[in-house]
Amino acid sequence: MMRVLLLLAALLCGLPTLAASRCDVRVPTETVSLGEVRLAYQSIGRENDPALLLVMGLGGQLIHWPDEVVARLCEQGFRVIRFDNRDVGLSAWTHGAPTINLTYEVLRYRLGFPVSAPYRLSDMADDALHLMDRLGIQRFHVLGASMGGMIAQHMADQAPERLQSLTLIMTSSGAQGLPAPSQALLQLLARREAPSREVAIEQQADLLAALGSPEVSDDRALLLQQAAQAYDRAFNPEGVQRQLLAILAEPSRVELLNRLRVPTLVVHGTADPLLPVMHGVHVAAHIKGAELKLIPGLAHRFQEAFKEPLLAAVLPYLNAHRQAVGLARL
C-alpha cells in the first residue's frame, strides 16, 4: 500500500512538469498543402487529447494567439492547433496570388454594389476543415476571434457534425444596421502599404493602440515590439487586403446563424471599438441555445489585463463540452 501511495505522490508531483513539457508553445511550425494554398500551423499538446482549433482574425498570424493563453488551454488537456489563414504569416499560394483593385471594390461596397473577391470566408472555412482532415482529426472544438469567428460560423454550418463546441470572440453576424466603427479606425485598418519596415511597424503599433481598451494604458515600446515581431515573421499587405475583400463580399450571416445547432459560446467586450458590443449580442441572439458572456472593458485585442477574464469565460465552457479522456484533464 505504501508503495502505491509513493508512486501516486510521485506521479502527482510530476504532473506540472509533464504539462509544461507537453504544452511547449515553441514547437516547430509545419506546413501542409491544400490545393491552391499552403497553410502553416502549430500543434501543441498530445495527439490523443481533444483538439481545439484556433482561427485568427483579419491580418492576424498564429503568433497573435498569446503564448500564455495557448499554454493554459493545452494545460487543461486540449491539443491546441493554431495556424496562419491563407494570405498571412507563413501561409502562401501554391501558384500566383490573385490580383485585386481594393480601391475600386471598396468604392462599390460603399455604394451598395456587390464586391468581387478572389475568395470567400467560406473558402477560408474549407481551408481550416481540410487542415484538420490532413491532421486526421475528425471531431474538434473551434475558437474563432473577429474574422476568425466569422470563418468559424461557416465551419459550424458546413460541418456541424465535426464541431464539439464553437466559441466566438469579438465577432459579428455581418447584418445590416449594427453599429459601425469610426472612419478613423477603418482607415487605420486599411492602411497596409508602407515604404519601409520602420513605417510599417509604426502603423501597426498605431492600429494596435486604436483597437485597445480605454481602460488600459498601452506601453508604446511593447506595441512596437509586437508589431516588429509580426513584421519580421511575415509582411504581406496585399494578402490582408484580399482578406478584407472576403469580409466585404460577405452577405449577412443571420440565416446561417439561425440554422446552427452546435453548442456555442459568444464572448464580447463592452469597449470593442471595431465591432461594438451589439455585434456579439446579435450573434448570440440568432444561435439557438448560445451562451453570451460580456467582459467589461474588453476591446478588440488580447491585452494582458483581459487574458484572465477571457480564460475565465472560455475554459469552463470548453471543459463542459470536452470528451473525457482519462488523465488528459490533469
From TrEMBL:
SUPFAM superfamilies: alpha/beta-Hydrolases
Keyword Signal set for record: yes
InterPro entries membership: AB_hydrolase, AB_hydrolase_1, AB_hydrolase_fold
GO biological process, one term: glycerolipid catabolic process
Record keywords: Signal
Segments forming domain AB hydrolase-1: 50-300
Signal peptide, first to last residue: 1-19
Gene Ontology molecular-function annotations: triacylglycerol lipase activity
Record's protein name: Pimeloyl-ACP methyl ester carboxylesterase
Species the sequence originates in: Pseudomonas indica
Organism phylogeny: Bacteria, Pseudomonadati, Pseudomonadota, Gammaproteobacteria, Pseudomonadales
